[in-house]
Design brief:
about 425 residues; alpha/beta
């Protein structure tokens, strides 16, 4: 997959060396890239039961309606006056294709072990055989073109198995669209119009809803969800093109978009009536700048986009990456309780160190949840379910807290009277 690299300062101080920041998510191989439901802690949401679904086929039988998704948290409730907000953490995966490296089931297993949910941004092309690639008509690009590789038949089947299992275990299936066109060329998603985004989305959905027709396979079970209802958000290739995507997302009834680059660890707000849930700048141990909360951005800063750097670097880079996520979590958890958003790919870059790092960070956060703390490992959809039931004045007050700022007087005092104006003193530095 083509990559996009941008050099720029991410929270740099005067005289600091520039970071290599990636304004998006790219891979260099044929895959781009899991699990049960929104974890709960003290006072958190409890997962519901998971009765065996009875399927009603949809369309050509590629998908089916099986009722309410299993392993979902209890109905969210608004914060009470003076209540401490939960610490939400969302792990997400771009592409969500399984290419025989076992990463999809590895992270599904990890999430299941800890009662967590994730979001999988499925690339529609990962369910389309290369022999049928001319069914894809990408905006401003030749028919059948793609900047990511088409999967083999065996890997499409593995991806179908992973997506099916993910949904049944409580995870969200979003979209990473299709051909992953980045850069500044005319065909880049950066230049697509709202109408062209609608075409791309319609095609991404059709590849999911019609994989049986496109492959001719009859020996695999249907995906157990109605994708027209399931799909409520996505992440664009390389975090480009959000401004023109949002009008289309609003028309489609989407609830969030995770395509903003360079977000900060603060409580989110809406853009064009859509929740804006960006990758965030988090501490980068040993460096004077911050890094975006995604595996590829760790790579870009450590090895300048090289995915097979000298192996002697791997232990230090793995630890640096894991600690970046952990410190980002700790900073939010101990101060403003802003949600932490983490992005990943099912890739073995630099010896697989980024997969090991995100697993280490995930386990660290899960241990905090398992202690009975109100830490919730959820999908983006589950997070916006919670946002949507909160009182607007409460969210406005939460947004007054800056990165690393504790509420003055503690949470009981800070949210005791949310009728106070949002322009009041936001808090104090950590």
């Amino acid at each position: 997959m083509r990559t996009l690299t941008r050099r720029g300062a991410l929270g740099l101080g005067a005289g600091a060396a520039a970071a290599v920041g990636l304004a998006g998510c790219g891979t260099l191989t044929s895959s781009d890239g899991p699990t049960p439901a929104g974890g709960s802690g003290k006072g958190g949401n409890k997962p519901s039961g998971s009765p065996k679904p009875s399927a009603r086929p949809l369309g050509d039988g590629s998908t089916s309606f099986t009722g309410k998704q299993p392993h979902q948290p209890a109905k969210p409730e608004p914060l009470e006056p003076g209540q401490t907000p939960p610490q939400f953490v969302v792990f997400s995966w771009d592409g969500a294709g399984e290419v025989g490296n076992g990463l999809f089931p590895r992270f599904l297993d990890l999430a299941k072990e800890h009662g967590a949910s994730m979001t999988f941004f499925l690339s529609g092309l990962y369910l389309l055989p290369e022999s049928k690639k001319r069914l894809y008509d990408p905006p401003n690009n030749p028919r059948g073109a793609s900047d990511i590789g088409y999967l083999t038949d065996a890997h499409i089947k593995e991806t179908l198995n992973g997506v099916r299992r993910a949904w049944l275990e409580g995870h969200e299936i979003g979209t990473h669209f299709n051909g992953h066109f980045c850069g500044e060329a005319h065909g880049s998603v950066a230049h697509w119009t709202p109408r062209q985004w609608r075409s791309e989305i319609d095609q991404a959905k059709s590849f999911v809803k019609e994989w049986r027709t496109n492959t001719g396979w009859t020996d695999l079970p249907a995906l157990p969800f109605d994708y027209d209802k399931e799909l409520v958000g996505g992440r664009t290739p390389c975090l480009l093109g959000q401004n023109n995507l949002l009008p289309t997302a609003r028309e489609l009834g989407w609830r969030y978009d995770a395509s903003s680059p360079g977000g900060r660890q603060v409580w989110p707000r809406k853009q064009q009536e859509i929740w804006d849930l960006p990758l965030q700048q988090i501490p980068f141990p040993g460096r004077s700048f911050e890094v975006l909360s995604m595996d590829y951005n760790m790579l870009a800063n450590q090895s300048l986009n090289t995915t097979k750097a000298p192996a002697y670097n791997y232990p230090g880079w793995r630890q640096q990456s894991a600690q970046a996520y952990i410190q980002g979590f700790k900073r939010a958890y101990e101060t403003n309780r802003a949600p932490l958003f983490v992005g990943n790919h099912f890739e073995q870059w630099n010896g697989g160190i980024y997969m090991d790092a995100v697993e280490e960070a995930f386990k660290h956060i899960a241990r905090e949840k398992d202690k009975g703390e109100d830490v919730r490992l959820v999908s983006f959809r589950q997070f916006v379910d919670w946002l949507d039931v909160q009182k607007p004045e409460v969210l406005a007050k939460l947004r007054t807290l800056d990165v690393g700022q504790r509420p003055v007087g503690g949470w009981n005092e800070f949210l005791k009277d949310t009728r106070a104006t949002a322009s009041q003193s936001p808090g104090q530095p950590a």
